[in-house]
C-alpha cells in the first residue's frame, strides 16, 4: 500500500504534495498544454498562480523548459501570443524541440520533439553524481508530435 507524503507548505501558504526528488536512475519528460502564465519564465504579459506552481515544480525537480517560442496563436480580440505548451525535462540535451504551423483550425502551433535514446550495446560513461551507474553515448532518434485541435 502506498501512503501519500504529508503536504508541504508552499511560499503562498497552499499545501502541495511532496513529489520524490529525482535520482540518477530517473529521467522525467512532461509535454502538454499547461495554459499557465509566468512573466520571467515564459515571457507572458503577467504571472498567474498556476504559472507560479508550474515554475516552482520545475525548479524543485530540476526540470528545464525547452519550448522557447510562443505556441498559442491569438484567435480573439485582445489575445496575445504566449508559450502555453511546455516541454519539461530532466535531460535537456537528449531532446530538440521545433515549432510548426498549426494543424487544421487549432490555435496552437505544432510542437515536434526529436528524442535521442541511448543504445545499451554502446560504450558506457559514468553519470555525474551517480558513482554506481553508467549511461551510453550512442543515440537513436524518434519524433513525437503534439497538437491541440
UniProtKB/TrEMBL annotation:
Which residue intervals make up region (Disordered)?
Answer: 127-149
Q: Which Gene3D superfamilies match?
A: Endonuclease/exonuclease/phosphatase
Entries under Pfam families matching the protein: Exo_endo_phos_2 (PF14529)
Q: Which InterPro entries match?
A: Endo/exonu/phosph_ase_sf, Endo/exonuclease/phosphatase
The Endonuclease/exonuclease/phosphatase domain extends over 28-111
Q: Give one GO term, molecular function aspect.
A: catalytic activity
Q: Which domain of life is it from?
A: Eukaryota
Residue ranges annotated as compositionally biased, kind Low complexity, are: 133-149
- Its protein name is Endonuclease/exonuclease/phosphatase domain-containing protein
Amino acid at each position: 500500500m502506498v501512503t501519500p507524503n504529508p503536504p508541504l507548505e508552499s511560499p503562498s501558504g497552499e499545501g502541495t504534495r511532496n513529489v520524490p526528488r529525482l535520482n540518477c536512475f530517473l529521467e522525467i519528460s512532461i509535454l502538454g498544454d499547461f495554459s499557465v502564465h509566468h512573466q520571467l519564465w515564459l515571457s507572458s504579459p503577467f504571472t498567474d498562480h498556476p504559472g507560479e506552481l508550474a515554475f516552482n515544480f520545475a525548479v524543485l525537480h530540476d526540470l528545464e523548459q525547452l519550448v522557447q517560442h510562443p505556441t498559442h496563436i491569438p484567435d480573439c480580440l485582445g489575445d496575445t501570443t504566449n508559450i502555453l505548451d511546455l516541454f519539461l525535462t530532466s535531460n535537456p540535451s537528449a531532446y530538440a524541440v521545433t515549432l510548426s504551423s498549426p494543424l487544421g483550425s487549432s490555435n496552437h502551433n505544432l510542437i515536434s520533439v526529436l528524442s535521442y535514446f541511448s543504445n545499451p550495446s554502446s560504450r558506457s560513461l559514468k553519470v555525474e553524481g551517480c558513482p554506481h551507474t553508467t549511461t551510453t553515448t550512442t543515440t537513436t532518434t524518434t519524433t513525437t508530435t503534439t497538437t491541440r485541435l
